[in-house]
Each structure stands twice: as structure tokens, then as C-alpha cells.
Amino acid sequence: MQNRPSHPGVVRLSAGPPAWVLAAVLPVAAVGLIWFRSADSGLSSTPSDPVSPLIMAVVTLVAVSVLAWRCVTQRAALDEDGLHCRNLTMSYHLEWERIERLQLVYRGGLQIIEVRVHGLRRHNRLGAATRFLGEEADAVLDSLRAHPQACALLDEQQF
């Protein structure tokens, strides 16, 4: 399992099964949308189309491929300096002093870690820590509990 610390005080998390499922579903949905459009009126351009449907199909497939790649390459590293995270749509680095708390949230069979930052109303997610409930989710949670700074900020209250 890649979610074990390689150095004392360092926790590395990689994408979990929810990311792999999303990476598989995105291309299928994109191909379905393109097929639906082509079955309806073909991919030929009409005078009312501002952009050719064929070009839109190619752009859709490229965008979905990039998102699917970002899904499976999500990662997070918690070290002495702070939290380094690459999620589906963004990457960020936060020093421990800026983090208010790491909040454990359960949503629809998923365990999600939300990062609350001092002075920001918006919160980020540790996408690499998102797991289906079960053994693997517990292992990720145990690795966060083993990290000194993350353990001090971890809020496991359920509402």
C-alpha cells in the first residue's frame, strides 16, 4: 500500500478507488454524449452551430482525458513543512500554521477529509484521501492520526 509513511513524520497518499471509478466513468459518459449527438443529427455542421460538432467532440474527449488523468494522479503529502496536495482540478501547498483543521466528513459511502484554512470561508478537500468506507479508508485515517501535525488538527466529529 502506498499510503504508508516513507520517512518518519511524512504521510503520502495516492488516489483511491473512487478516483479510479470516476476516471473510468468520465470517458464512457463523454462517448455517450457524443454518440447521442451523432445519433440525433450527426456530427455535421449546420448554419446554426457556432462551432462544428466534430470539433466539440474532439475538445470534449481531450478535456475528459485530462480530467481522467488528473483523477488517477491525485496525491497528497503531509510533511513537517505542511500539506502538499494535487486534486482533480487544483494543486496547493499549505503551511501547518494556515490550516485551521482537517475535518473528517462522511458522504454517501465515502470518507472525505476537508481542509479548513484560517480566514477562508471556502474549504479544500484532500482528494487523494477520499475512500469508500471500509478497511482502506481506516488505513488512510490511521496514517493521518500517526502524523503529529495532522493528528492535532484532525476533527473526527460526525454531524
Folded structure, characterized:
With 159 residues, the protein is of the alpha+beta class. The chain has two domains: 11-16 and 74-155, PH-domain like; 19-71. The chain has four helices and nine strands. Strands 5, 6, 7, 8 and 9 form a five-stranded mixed β-sheet that branches. Strands 1-2-3-4 form a four-stranded antiparallel β-sheet, with helices on one face. The chain starts with 10 loop residues before the first strand and ends with a strand.
Q: Can you count the helices?
A: 4
Query: Overall 3D geometry?
Result: elongated
What's the CATH architecture name of the largest domain?
A: Roll
Q: Mean pLDDT, as a whole number?
A: 88
Question: Keywords for this structure?
Answer:
single chain, 159 residues, alpha+beta, PH-domain like, 2 domains, 4-stranded antiparallel beta sheet, transmembrane helix, membrane, transmembrane
Task: Describe the protein's topology.
Layout lengths: L10 E4 L2 H25 L11 H20 L2 E4 L3 E5 L4 E5 L3 E9 L2 E8 L6 E2 L5 E2 L2 H12 L1 H6 E2 L4
Parallel strand pairs: 5-9
Antiparallel strand pairs: 1-2, 2-3, 3-4, 5-6, 6-7, 6-8
Helix pairs in contact: 1-2
Brief description of this entry?
This protein has helices at residues 17-41, 53-72, 135-146, 148-153, and strands at 11-14, 75-78, 82-86, 91-95, 99-107, 110-117, 124-125, 131-132, 154-155. By secondary structure, it is α+β, with helices and mostly antiparallel strands. The strands form two sheets. Strands 5, 6, 7, 8 and 9 form a five-stranded mixed sheet that branches.
